[in-house]
Amino acid sequence: PLVKTLGSEIGARLFLTERLNASLVLWQLDIDSELLFVGDAGNTEDTGVGSERHGLELTAYYQIGNSWSVDLEYAYANSRFETPIDGFDDIPGALEHVVSGGIGFQRGNGFHGYLRLRHFGDYKLDSGVDAQGSTLLSARLGYAFNDRLSVTVDALNLLNSNDRDIQYFYESQLRGEAAPIEDRHFHVFEPRAIRAYLEYTF
């Protein structure tokens, strides 16, 4: 269902030099009734409780010479129910800290690529249970033969991390168990994968 939502943000971007620029955004969001995902049922439900969020986003981009570039992004969010549910005001699944950054290059001879890191900090699940943070590293290397033909190789989950990609906390009952049990339910990152692409533009 649609509910009344009020949001606002203010920000600024600074071009510190010809090669370096940065931005800062402050924001807030008030929602009259928060929707939560119910993992066991696979759908969302209306809590009937309002929520308040506020946070900031920082970005910085730096050009190194004519070929290399570096970027860094950080986001912080404080998310709370207006009225605690079961004694907890943390919104389950709401991330608090997110960091991403990378280094990339684009050569005049057709080669291009990047190395990119993404980190989610610990956050809260239902009933105040903590969810573990996760870190993922990926890379890309490509070559453009001309304006029409290029080849790209992606390395996903380069470090073969088994961090948890998705996490929930709810009751479930396996066959043979006498009663439902509250526990974490999660899916880890897909194993390291190499993917190659050949692209031709008509």
CATH classification class: Mainly Beta
Average pLDDT, rounded to a whole number, is 93
Q: What level of helicity do the residues show?
A: under 10%
Q: Please tally the β strands and state the result.
A: 16
Shape designation:
globular
Q: If you compute it from the alpha carbons, what radius of gyration comes out, rounded to the nearest whole angstrom?
A: 22 Å
**At CATH's second level, what is the architecture?**
Beta Barrel
Q: Report the portion of residues in β strands.
A: over 45%
Number of domains: 1
3D architecture notes:
By secondary structure, this protein is an all-beta fold. It has a single domain, classed as TonB-dependent receptor, beta-barrel domain (Maltoporin, Chain A), CATH 2.40.170. 0% of the residues lie in helices and 66% in strands. It is built from no helices and 16 strands. The strands form four sheets. Strands 1, 2, 5, 6, 7, 8, 9, 12, 13 and 16 form a ten-stranded antiparallel sheet that branches. It has a two-stranded antiparallel sheet with strand order 3-4. Strand 8 and strand 9 form a beta hairpin. It starts with a strand and ends with a strand. The mean pLDDT is 93.
